Amino acid sequence: MTTSESSRIAARRVARGDVVRIGARVGFAARGVLYLLVGVLAVRIALTGTGEQADRGGALAEVAATPFGAVVLWALGIGLAGMAVWRLSEALFGAAGRGGDGTGKRVASGARCVFYGVSSFLVLAFAVGRRSSGAGSTDQQSRDITGRLLELPGGPWWVGAVAAGFLGAGLWMAGRAVLRAYRKHLVWDRMSASQRRFMDVTGIAGGVGRGVVFGAIGYFGLRAAVTFDPKESKGMDDTIRSFAQTPAGPWLLVAVAVGLVLFGLFSFGQVKWRDV
Fold it and tell me: Binning pLDDT at 50, 70 and 90, where does residue 29 land?
């Protein structure tokens, strides 16, 4: 066995070791906390019309206001970093389960690694006092990024491509939830009937709610591309609020908000039953 082969085997063992697995489970817990808080904020907006931010920034501000807020913020940031490392290990060495070595799944894991890595950086930046980095309004960030892309050659196409990505991701999330695709990633055979029911209820409703939000973000992005107007672009906060402006009124916002809460609970279930 060559030195390079030995190194690859050692790296694979580390990637599939207990530390990375613990990082993944802590990451699911951190994701659950953030979605749970965003969902609760969205419910409050629907019922009271409060001006709070129903996005990552609002969730972090909510955490910071608690007695142990600083400790929790660091825990959330480290947890998301653990999730990023786990996704990186999947991108490099393949995911657990059947078909985990497929190219498509590795690319998806790489994209998720980047997403959670950036999220971790923003949360930790907020924890060390750079509040504008971690808790900035996703609405303003979305408009700023859209404006910069529109200024590039072929700008509307760039914006449209990103928006189509969000729209496609939303449909993919909702579709997988309805089809219960999450089951193949769980230790389903070792779960009791009540545990399976919990994961089905939270997985389907939560996945659809999350998918609707991502899809709506993509829809507003496409409007910005067509109208060449960055103000048409919306972050999570404005997107969530927009559901109250539909014919269904605040009740659609409540339904979406409850879906986000349930996705947070689903993430907590993944802490224990996800096959990592």
Answer: very high
